[in-house]
Specification:
Layout lengths: L1 H36 L2 E7 L12 E2 L18 E4 L2 E8 L10 E2 L2 E3 L4 E2 L3 E10 L7 E6 L9 E6 L6 E7 L1 H6 L8 E5 L6 E7 L3 E6 L2 E7 L15 E6 L20 E13 L8 E2 L2
Antiparallel strand pairs: 1-17, 2-6, 3-4, 4-5, 4-17, 6-16, 7-18, 8-13, 8-17, 9-10, 9-16, 10-11, 11-12, 13-14, 14-15
């Protein structure tokens, strides 16, 4: 009798689990179908065909106190364009008598040059991995300071991982929400050494993260959570950054100088507006 009861309980659990998975699969299929059915118009891009980065679109990231930018440098060895590919490098600093930072990295930002509100952004990139390496493709809101302005991390990669992180940050996620509701981010498996395309589709109600055009995580707007849960109703600018070291990336161990030079290559970045959209506020700054 006990064995039979155990069998039926197990069967019920299995059926419930399968039903849950089936429902999740249906949601993912619906997102994929909607993504593929949407028509998009290209409104801004960079294929990195110039000998130097386009100063009408980008400026160099400056060094600052946060972990993501505390090794930034304008050393010319760190950024180059070759054969239509932007190379952002990270190196061991061989001139610490001039600059005390142990490592040097580069990044570029469209802040003050170009920002957009709603649409689709895609960035094709690959890495030369290293222990302590932290390449990232991300966006920040124009208005207010961080974290109130919001942050959309299209891709962050750590060390030699075979996965990337995609996350939103805001005053709500960092200071208010203690239950991670709605879930602020997720991970996606990648072929680490290959070219992959990272991005999102963003509208007034949700941000759908993608890898190689496949949805990976959705962050929804929940009006009942208040305006601080959704600072994503303003123009955002883009940041392409290479970083070495920091509390997060070094959580699995210290940076290994023998792994460097390392870095990130970016083939292109493209921003689209939804066909027929009248209020997506895609615009250049200035």
């Amino acid at each position: 009798m006990i064995a039979k009861l155990t069998y039926y309980i197990g069967l019920a659990v299995l059926i419930t689990a399968n039903a849950t998975l089936s429902a999740e699969d249906d949601v993912n299929k619906n997102i994929v179908a909607a993504t593929q059915a949407t028509k998009w118009n290209l409104v801004w891009s960079d294929d990195f065909t110039l000998e130097k980065f386009d100063g009408a679109k980008w400026t160099l990231c400056k060094r600052g106190a946060p972990d993501w930018c505390n090794t930034m440098s304008d050393d010319p060895r760190l950024l180059k364009i070759k054969d239509g590919v932007l190379h952002l490098r990270g190196i061991v600093n061989d001139k610490q008598d001039v600059d005390s930072a142990p490592y040097l990295t580069a990044g570029i930002t469209s802040k003050g040059k170009y920002s957009f509100q709603y649409g689709k952004v895609q960035i094709r990139a690959r890495f030369k991995s290293a222990q302590g390496a932290w390449p990232a493709l991300w966006m920040m809101g124009d208005d207010k300071g961080w974290p109130a302005n919001g942050e959309i991390d299209l891709m962050e990669h750590l060390n030699f991982d075979h996965k990337i992180y995609q996350t939103v940050h805001s005053e709500y996620t960092l200071k208010i929400d203690k239950a991670n509701t709605p879930k602020k981010g997720g991970t996606a498996e990648i072929k680490r050494d290959d070219w992959n395309t990272y991005g999102c589709e963003w509208n007034a109600d949700q941000i759908v993260f993608t890898v190689n055009d496949r949805p990976t995580h959705t962050y929804p707007r929940l009006p009942e959570k208040g305006e601080k849960q959704w600072p994503f109703n303003q123009p955002f600018y883009c940041i392409l950054s290479m970083q070495i070291g920091g509390k997060w990336v070094n959580g699995s161990g210290p940076t290994n100088p023998a792994d460097y030079p390392a870095g990130m290559e970016i083939d292109w970045i493209r921003v689209y507006s939804r066909a027929g959209a009248t209020s997506n506020a895609v615009r250049p700054d200035g």
